[in-house]
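Incident review: delayed structure delivery

Summary: a single-chain prediction request sat in the queue longer than the usual turnaround. Root cause was a stuck worker, restarted by the on-call engineer. No data loss occurred. The affected request and its eventual output are reproduced below so the record is complete for anyone auditing the incident later.

Affected input:
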Amino acid sequence: MKLYMKQKVFSWADTFTVKDQLGEDKYYIKGEVFSWGKKLHVYDRMDREVAFIRQKLWTFMPRYMVSVNGTDVAEIVKEFTFLRPKYSILGPGWDVDGSFWEHDYEVTENGRPIVRIRKEWMAWGDTYELDIADAENEVMALAVVLAIDCVLDAQQNASNS
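Output delivered after worker restart:
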């Protein structure tokens, strides 16, 4: 199962959609502008909140909590490294590896793919494809990818300042 996001997903103030393989809106993402820490709400087509991503404040390295249907299911932690970004996904036992700056990475569980993220080069504008192996993990996989993108966006904004 594949989902598609445009580059503007990295904007916190905007509301944007995640589309399915047919180009239909599947999820709506809404960011909170005036809050302590970054927060994203993920809604389904029926306008029900299915996931919530929130930044943990006062930490040395960026940390984001992911809640699905009101239950904390994962914590995404950026690891301290000198050369290339590395992340840990605490909770579900998932691992993540790849080229984060190029949006080409994979989340796995015991070597089994959960979601693969890659940039679509032939699409109009920057579009990112999420190839999710099992529909059962769709919402959590989307939320984890959004949390990782939150960290990347914060770092890019800090380096541009």
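Verification: The mean pLDDT is 82.
Action items: add queue-age alerting; document worker restart procedure.
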